[in-house]
Structure formats: structure tokens, C-alpha cells
Write a structure and sequence with these properties.
Elements (H helix, E strand, L loop, with lengths): L7 H17 L1 H7 L3 E8 L5 H7 L3 E3 H4 L9 H9 L1 E5 L2 H7 L6 E4 L2 E9 L5 E9 L1 H8 L1 E2 L5 H9 L1 E4 L5 E5 L2 E7 L4 H35 L9 H22 L6 H13 L1 H9 L3 H23 L3 H15 L1 H10 L10
Parallel strand pairs: 2-4, 7-9
Antiparallel strand pairs: 1-8, 1-10, 3-6, 4-5, 5-6, 9-10
Helix pairs in contact: 1-9, 2-9, 9-10, 9-11, 10-11, 10-12, 11-13, 11-14, 12-13, 12-15, 13-14
Keywords: Membrane, Transmembrane, Transmembrane helix
InterPro entries: DUF8127
Length: 347
């Protein structure tokens, strides 16, 4: 007899298993491939200030900072440029833009300036000092010797480019020549950090999906002819399966802080609890649905607070929000596989 094809429900579970397994290694994939091409550009003092200010942490592009600030609020800056200093009140629109500029130099209106700012707490009063400085002074002060730079920086300067996950960008000097080492394009580092962050978030989500897929496949194997096989009790057992799966994956594939053994499994079980929510919604048990949602939120917050302290009071709700968003998939499976109240949902 010809072998029968898998049912639609079984195929859907296998797809969830594949997606969950892929997500489970998202962090490893993003960190493993997170490389950026860095370029070393030769510059003379005064040349290419946009590139210099972007690469070094000791010079701020004040023009770029003020680009969205209306001209009438920039009077204190123009006063400091003209007289060397300004002491008085800043409009909030200016204060919020420059209060954290603590670099020794700034680039403004085509010139470099030595820069200091002191602000008074809980007020918008400030003292600003700006003294025009020649580019040679800025470069000689800010630049670091190539001989003392990391090997990746020396490689970039010798060959023009280098590819690595992180390179100490900045202004470097060798034999009287200055080089700016910076990512090939401006948003490269931000893109890399964003991809790693997404991978970090998707990893526990994937492990929650794996738990849901394996648990439902297990019940499908036991009761292959039953389409709606989920009860609240069974859904809760499957959600709890996310904890050992996440713990095992963390132990096998990850290293580092022990907090990962709490943060990952906590997020994974929050995601998998969407399965329970789906069953409760299918059975129209709204009060219990609210109770489960609040309960899993308190569980996540308490678990994270226990290992990372008061910060967990912030990351706990964030983990719950992530679980609610990504738990829509398990919620759909829970709703699809749920026994309705007419078929004894309590068993």
C-alpha cells in the first residue's frame, strides 16, 4: 500500500519545529557573521572633518548636533564663538542637545574649537567655553600612535581595509601621516548591533516554538486520529517543556554569564505559554486567560529580578511583551488544537 502523506496539522507542526530550530541559533548566526569592513583613510589636519568626528570619540561634530535646532536657540553658541564664552540660560531645545557634549574639541562653522561646558543640576543654566584651535593641535592631541594600536588597526593602515567584528576606530598617526580608521559606511556598526540584538531576542523565542512543536507532535503520535487534542493541562505541560529545552540548549551551545540559564528559559516559557492562552480562548475561559497572562508576567519579572536585581523589574515586563508578541504563533496553534467545552476540556 502507498504510504499516506502527513496531515495538514502534522505538516504545520513540522514547519513550526523547523522555524523554532532556526530561531534557536539566531544569536550564534548573527554573532558568527557579524563582521564589518573598516577602511583606513589618510587625512591632513583640517581635511574631512565629518569623517574625523565620526571616527574619534574626542571630537564632536557640533554642526551636526545642532542641525535640527532652530537658529534662534543657537545664540549662546554664537556668543561663545565670538567672545570665547557664554554664561547664562539655555533654551530647553538647545540644552537637551549639547548638555552631554563632553569631548575636549568640537567642529563648528568650519573650524575646530576647544570645548568645555558645565551645567547646573535641575536647571538650564550653563557655562560654555569655546576657543578656536588649529587642526594640527587637535590632530596631534587626539591621534594615537599606530605602533600602540591593535593588530586589526595596523592591518587596516597597511592594506587599506580590514574585516573584523570590532575594530578600535579612531584617528591614528604614523611617521607624520594621519589615518582615520572607520567602518566602510556610517551605519555599519549600528546594523551589526541591531542584527545581534535581534538574534539575541529570537533565540529564546525559537526554543519556545521548539517546545510547542515537540509537545504537540508527541500528543499527535499518541492520539493520531484526534484533531483537537489539547486541554489546558496538556498545553501547560507543553509550555513547561520550554524550560528544560532552553536550559539544555544553553548548556550545550552557549557560555558566559550564568544569568543566561534564567533569562533564556524564562523568555522561552513565556512564549510557549501562548499555547495555553490559545486553548483558553478557544474554550471562552476569559477570566482564566487573564489570570494566566498576569501570572506569567509576574513569574518572568520575579525570575529575572532574582538574578539581575532591580533591573529585572524593567526587563521582566519587556520579556513579557516579547512573549506576547511572538507568542501569537503558539496562541494560534493552541486555538487550532484545543478541545472545546463540549468535549470535556478539563481532561
Amino acid at each position: 500500500m502507498p504510504r499516506s502523506l502527513p496531515s495538514t496539522r502534522t505538516v504545520a507542526l513540522l514547519i513550526l519545529l523547523v522555524v523554532g530550530s532556526t530561531f534557536s541559533f539566531a544569536f550564534h548566526a548573527t554573532t558568527g557573521s557579524a563582521t564589518i569592513t573598516y577602511e583606513a583613510t589618510s587625512v591632513e589636519p583640517g581635511e574631512n572633518p565629518e569623517l574625523v568626528t565620526r571616527a574619534t570619540s574626542n571630537v564632536t561634530d557640533l554642526e551636526e548636533r545642532l542641525s535640527d535646532t532652530p537658529a534662534q536657540y543657537q545664540v549662546p553658541i554664537r556668543t561663545a564663538v565670538a567672545t570665547g564664552s557664554y554664561n547664562g540660560t539655555l533654551q530647553p531645545e538647545l540644552h537637551i542637545v549639547i548638555e552631554d557634549v563632553r569631548t575636549p574639541y568640537v567642529w563648528y562653522n568650519g573650524s575646530y574649537y576647544a570645548w568645555t561646558i558645565s551645567t547646573k543640576e535641575e536647571t538650564t543654566n550653563a557655562t560654555i567655553q569655546m576657543e578656536r584651535t588649529n587642526p594640527e593641535t587637535v590632530f596631534s592631541t587626539v591621534a594615537r600612535p599606530v605602533s600602540e594600536a591593535p593588530s586589526e588597526v595596523r592591518t587596516a593602515i597597511e592594506s587599506g581595509t580590514t574585516t573584523a567584528s570590532i575594530v578600535e576606530q579612531g584617528l591614528y598617526q604614523q611617521d607624520g601621516t594621519y589615518y582615520v580608521v572607520a567602518p566602510e559606511y556610517e551605519g555599519a556598526l549600528g546594523t551589526q548591533l541591531a542584527s545581534v540584538a535581534i538574534g539575541f531576542l529570537l533565540t529564546p523565542v525559537g526554543r519556545g516554538y521548539v517546545a510547542v512543536a515537540l509537545g504537540l507532535l508527541g500528543y499527535r503520535y499518541r492520539e493520531p486520529t484526534r484533531a483537537r487534542l489539547l486541554t489546558v493541562r496538556r498545553a501547560a505541560a507543553i509550555a513547561a517543556l520550554a524550560i528544560p529545552i532552553a536550559l539544555g540548549a544553553t548548556a550545550l551551545f552557549e557560555s558566559g554569564s550564568p544569568t543566561r540559564f534564567v533569562t533564556g528559559p524564562t523568555t522561552a516559557v513565556v512564549v510557549a505559554t501562548g499555547l495555553v492562552a490559545g486553548v483558553l480562548a478557544a474554550q471562552r475561559r476569559w477570566l482564566l486567560l487573564v489570570g494566566v497572562t498576569v501570572g506569567i508576567g509576574l513569574f518572568a519579572t520575579a525570575a529575572l529580578s532574582a538574578v539581575i536585581g532591580l533591573v529585572g523589574l524593567v526587563f521582566g515586563p519587556l520579556a513579557v511583551c516579547l512573549g506576547l508578541l511572538t507568542g501569537v504563533i503558539p496562541f494560534g496553534y493552541g486555538y487550532w488544537f484545543a478541545r472545546t467545552s463540549s468535549v470535556n476540556p478539563q481532561n
